[in-house]
């Protein structure tokens, strides 16, 4: 079954947002690992509304989607991710939903911190 999600590079004062999933039995083995936040698009929801909702649920922040960066896909799992670049309205973050920790990090640190299993669905523009 095809799965479509939205995820983002959320920027605040030159840094990006990363989240650490809670320990769980995740389909891509991301339990307890770092990634760029996002989530599945709900029926009747636009990708833009999804990313705004997910950032509030996962990090307690309001974001403004600025542009679509591309689409990541996994042909093995029939899973697609629409990637956004977003601007945070504030830098105050708190882990929520399925995350145990959130951080603002330098872009290079974010790329190094994110688990390889999360990078499978990154678009080329990430």
Percentage of residues in strands? 35-45%
Q: Please give the largest β-sheet.
A: 7 strands, mixed
Contiguous low-pLDDT stretches (5 residues minimum) are none
Considering DSSP H and I runs of 4 or more, what fraction of the residues is helical?
10-25%
What's the tally of helices?
Answer: 3
Question: How do the strands and helices of this protein lay out in sequence?
Answer:
Blueprint: E1 3-12, E2 15-21, E3 34-35, E4 38-40, H1 47-59, E5 63-74, E6 79-88, E7 99-105, H2 107-113, H3 116-119
Spell out the key features of this protein.
alpha+beta, single chain, seven-stranded mixed sheet, 126 residues, 7 strands, globular
Q: Quick gist of this model?
A:
The chain has 126 residues and is α+β, with helices and mostly antiparallel strands.
């Amino acid at each position: 079954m095809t799965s479509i999600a939205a995820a983002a590079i959320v920027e605040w004062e030159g840094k990006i947002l990363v989240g650490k999933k809670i320990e769980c039995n995740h389909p891509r083995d991301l339990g307890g690992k770092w990634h760029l936040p996002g989530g599945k698009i709900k029926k009747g929801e636009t990708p833009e509304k999804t990313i705004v909702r997910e950032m509030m649920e996962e990090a307690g922040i309001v974001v403004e989607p600025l542009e679509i960066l591309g689409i990541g896909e996994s042909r093995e799992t029939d899973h697609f991710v629409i990637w956004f670049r977003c601007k945070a309205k504030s830098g105050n973050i708190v882990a929520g939903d399925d995350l145990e920790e959130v951080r603002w990090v330098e872009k290079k640190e974010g790329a190094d911190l994110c688990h390889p299993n999360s990078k499978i669905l990154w678009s080329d523009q990430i």
